[in-house]
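Action item from last week, closing it out:
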Amino acid sequence: MNIDRLSKLDDNSTMTADLVIVGGGPAGLTIAMQCAKAGRKVLVVESGLEFEDAEHSTLNEVENVDELQSEAQIRRRVEFHGPQAEFWSSEIQPFGVRCRALGGSTHAWAGKSAPFDAIDFKARSWVPCSGWPMDRGQIEPYLLRAMEVLNLSPGEPPRRFDAAELHSFYWQFARSRVERLDIMRFGREFLAKRSDQIHVLLDATVTRIGLSADGSHFSHLDIANTAGKRARIQARLCVLAAGGIENARLLLASNDVHSKGIGNHYDRVGRYLMDHPGARIGRIEASQMTSLAKLFGFFGVHHKGRAHMFMHGLALTPQIQEREQLLNAAIYFATERAPDDPWDALKRLLRHDANFQHDLCSVAKGSGLIVKGIGMKILSDHRTPKMLKDIIINTAIRLSPNMVADEFQCRGLPHKLTGLRIEAICEQIPNADSRISLSTRRDRLGMPLAKVDWRINDLERQTLLRIAEISVACLSSAGMPVPKLEDWAVERRPQDIVIIDMAHTLGTTRMSVDAKTGVVDQNCKIHDVHNLYVAGGSVFPTSGHANPTLMILALATRLADHLNQQLAAG
């Protein structure tokens, strides 16, 4: 594998490739690997470096003009996104979480993956603009291949809860093949494979997509870095895999041939912006959490000699979605840290921003947890033999999957807990007024910022309210502890739900059969450009409620097969 930086090339030089992929995230790297296996020479263009840094992270800035501006939403976003993303800030990214480095969003994700439901692909009378150009059966073979990429098990634990309104739903965690105590980080996994067919160009931000004079063909990419170096890339085929915000921004900003931007004859690029509205619906006190934590905790499944972790939650059944005309949605249970958690207290002491006496006391009382955490850090050390790690971790998942899941989520630092939070995640209707457009403000490369106008609709709020109410009724009927709901749910005030984005930016270059209703066709090709494709969640017509990475990689695998056929045909 040849890895270069734009800074090392001659200024205004030209590179050529059969296939160029814009973006080194999960979708782009999956396509690169699948095409490289078929013997194709692939060039991956990544705006950042191997790892995130402050300089490139400034290029993630967006302008936000609608939702996510209340104090409660900003506070919840910082609480939710902040611990996962090292260089993220709510000021620079008031919507979404983008990581500008090789591996993309996997620098900040939690590793949660799940397939879409069959109902997510269907046209539903109560969901405007719903329906995919394919059904679940057609995507199934690619889902299985994507599971292999993500190191997932195709089998899952049996249903443990089955009511008329709610049934078991499982998320699975993508485990790293390189670092046994971490989730999968795509940059690290990609570099470990070292394919000779792939050339990676880092520190290279695409500033324009060039077309032929008549606008019917992709011609080239103009690229630049923050130091002012510029170059051009020419290729037979191009795939945009830069994420839901950047894919739309690049198409809109490349307006020298088509004044409205590429693929935007019918004003569809950037529209139908979706995320997964997330909200806290209630909590369970520590004294009642044991039975719920056991049922809705983590479960291990063995597949091909490895242990795989599943997280158990509850999802709305298709029957109640249709009967009450609700969106697809689910709830999951998250542990809640104590105010005197010893690891948090220790971190404050080391930063010298602590209430010294109080935090010192918390550290002393939690010394057992700290000793356990030190043991986990020793296990994660690169000097510990991999065979020993595998034996210990696989055995631990078999015997105590909840403990192992805590280690993954807390990066090896066990915490003192006080209860369970109940979180809901909801599908979002495709709304043409919810969109990415171009701001009048520009970044340091002269590119217009993406302007985000994310619209949360009444149907999302109604669905979140109903899943809160249904959860209480179903748990109570099953003789289980009943959650204490948030005030907005008790008083039936959906307008007061504190909703945040889950950093799953979808829909901005949606897939459609008709060019008048979308941007790409069922092969993810821009409708009116013969050799320009889009990969990632931006092509989703609807969002489902499941974390989208598995579905993104299924479509990326499917696209890679198509690209290999096109290249073979010349």
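Closing note: The CA atoms of residues 168 and 314 lie 5 Å apart.
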